[in-house]
């Protein structure tokens, strides 16, 4: 007769420390811009334990410094293109560089992160029975021929362009999510995130809001890429995090657009930043990069109806919050 040993009891230490925590959440890319704000919000709920995995390509430990050492928090240096073994209830899968200059820097790595990284997180979700949310992007709509973009639009994407590692990568990631859902019954959630801004963005990451704010603070000309009439719609990061958590907690797989429908041309954005931060600064026109989408604005009907979500922070309220953070990090205070 073989005696089977019963599984060990959780250690008294673990029980004492974690008796309140009943949800263990993995955040990939949690040291990045959106990820670290998401971690802040998740950590505010004492029922949550949070594990962050990040390879620090574009993220930083600094973004998480307030949580390092906290008993409900763990930070692991790990690349999602490698197998990961952890036991969790939910996975927020954000790991992927989001700024064009970073995702174009090593395009093969970007596509591996999107495809192999997402496959690994789905394999993990399957093994442990976790629910998984993917942060997809409005870039899946490419240079859209439909305006504003709703989730039923299939997009207009160049499969062989310099942005393809990112936007086609995310399209495959969405396909993998739905195939694991249909084939293996994995609980999935897909958010299509539109341009997001706020404190902790990399100062020199080349994205338009961070560029203009840093330039205005440094007294450098604001660089509007030609033609300047192209549009984007900017969502403040706290609104984004609320939308992501609602999507994860709700019953809908998505894809669901999460973004702010307030649409601006890049020239209008430059004028706004100039007026709010530094009326003396010049606005100049510079060359654009290939395949730049001409217009982008989310249709958020689904988010409103299915998640009861809509953004609260307007651009003119968000810009000063980001300016404050950038001034602190750049060490340049206001002149007056
Ligand atoms: P970010 O670059 O600040 O964060 C991404 C994080 O992922 C970083 O901490 C980075 O180090 C990490 N990472 C990258 N590759 C990794 C890998 N192979 N293994 C482990 N970690 C890795 O970008 P963000 O703006 O916070 O974007 C987060 C997510 O949201 C991304 O998936 C992005 O595609 C998506 N998204 C963002 C925006 C936006 O406007 N910020 C728009 C659409 C979609
Ligand atoms: N995987 C992982 N962590 C896990 C389980 C799986 O990283 O806990 C990875 C695994 O390395 C594999 C991928 O997820 O490459 C897909 O896993 P799945 O079980 O779906 O496929 P298979 O291993 O059968 O190819
Ligand atoms: N852009 C600009 N000046 C800059 C950086 C970007 O005019 O210094 C423009 C860019 O051409 C694009 C828009 O701003 O039309 C948004 O670019 P970003 O890289 O922030 O994000 P994208 O939406 O392209 O991923």
Automatic annotation (TrEMBL):
<dbReference type="Pfam" id="PF16363">
    <property type="entry name" value="GDP_Man_Dehyd"/>
</dbReference>
<feature type="domain" description="NAD(P)-binding">
    <location>
        <begin position="26"/>
        <end position="321"/>
    </location>
</feature>
<keyword id="KW-0456">Lyase</keyword>
<keyword id="KW-0210">Decarboxylase</keyword>
<dbReference type="InterPro" id="IPR036291">
    <property type="entry name" value="NAD(P)-bd_dom_sf"/>
</dbReference>
<protein>
    <recommendedName>
        <fullName>UDP-glucuronate decarboxylase</fullName>
        <ecNumber>4.1.1.35</ecNumber>
    </recommendedName>
</protein>
<comment type="pathway">
    <text>Nucleotide-sugar biosynthesis; UDP-alpha-D-xylose biosynthesis; UDP-alpha-D-xylose from UDP-alpha-D-glucuronate: step 1/1.</text>
</comment>
<dbReference type="GO" id="GO:0070403">
    <property type="term" value="F:NAD+ binding"/>
</dbReference>
<dbReference type="GO" id="GO:0005737">
    <property type="term" value="C:cytoplasm"/>
</dbReference>
<dbReference type="GO" id="GO:0048040">
    <property type="term" value="F:UDP-glucuronate decarboxylase activity"/>
</dbReference>
<dbReference type="GO" id="GO:0042732">
    <property type="term" value="P:D-xylose metabolic process"/>
</dbReference>
<dbReference type="InterPro" id="IPR016040">
    <property type="entry name" value="NAD(P)-bd_dom"/>
</dbReference>
<comment type="function">
    <text>Catalyzes the NAD-dependent decarboxylation of UDP-glucuronic acid to UDP-xylose. Necessary for the biosynthesis of the core tetrasaccharide in glycosaminoglycan biosynthesis.</text>
</comment>
<dbReference type="InterPro" id="IPR044516">
    <property type="entry name" value="UXS-like"/>
</dbReference>
<comment type="similarity">
    <text>Belongs to the NAD(P)-dependent epimerase/dehydratase family. UDP-glucuronic acid decarboxylase subfamily.</text>
</comment>
<keyword id="KW-0963">Cytoplasm</keyword>
<keyword id="KW-0520">NAD</keyword>
């Amino acid at each position: 007769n073989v005696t089977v040993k019963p599984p060990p009891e959780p250690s008294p230490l673990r029980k004492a420390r974690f008796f309140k925590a009943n949800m263990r959440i993995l955040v990939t890319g949690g040291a990045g811009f959106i990820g670290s704000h998401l971690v802040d919000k998740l950590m505010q709920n004492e029922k949550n334990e949070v594990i962050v995995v990040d390879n620090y390509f574009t993220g930083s430990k600094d973004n998480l410094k307030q949580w390092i050492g906290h008993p409900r928090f763990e930070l692991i240096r790990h690349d999602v293109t490698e197998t990961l073994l952890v036991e969790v209830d939910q996975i927020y899968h954000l790991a992927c560089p989001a700024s064009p200059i970073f995702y174009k820097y090593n395009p093969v790595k970007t596509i591996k992160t999107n495809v192999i990284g997402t496959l690994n997180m789905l394999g993990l979700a399957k093994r442990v029975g976790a629910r998984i949310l993917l942060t997809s992007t409005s870039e899946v709509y490419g240079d859209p021929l439909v305006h504003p973009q709703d989730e039923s639009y299939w997009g207009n994407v160049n499969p062989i362009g310099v942005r393809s590692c990112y936007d086609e990568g995310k399209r495959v990631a969405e396909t993998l999510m739905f195939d694991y859902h249909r084939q293996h019954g994995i609980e999935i959630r897909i958010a299509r995130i539109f341009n997001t801004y706020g404190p902790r963005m990399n100062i020199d990451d080349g994205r338009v809001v961070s560029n203009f704010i840093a330039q205005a603070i440094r007294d450098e000309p604001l660089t509007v890429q030609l033609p300047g009439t192209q549009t984007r719609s900017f969502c403040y990061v706290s609104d984004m995090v609320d939308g992501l958590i609602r999507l994860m907690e709700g019953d809908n797989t998505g894809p669901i657009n999460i973004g702010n429908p307030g649409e601006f041309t890049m020239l209008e954005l430059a004028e706004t930043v100039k007026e709010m931060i530094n009326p003396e600064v010049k606005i100049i026109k510079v060359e654009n990069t290939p395949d730049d989408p001409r217009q982008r604005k989310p249709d958020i009907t689904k988010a409103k109806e299915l998640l009861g979500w809509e953004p609260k922070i307007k651009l003119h309220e968000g810009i000063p919050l980001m300016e404050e953070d950038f001034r602190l990090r750049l060490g340049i205070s206001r002149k007056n």
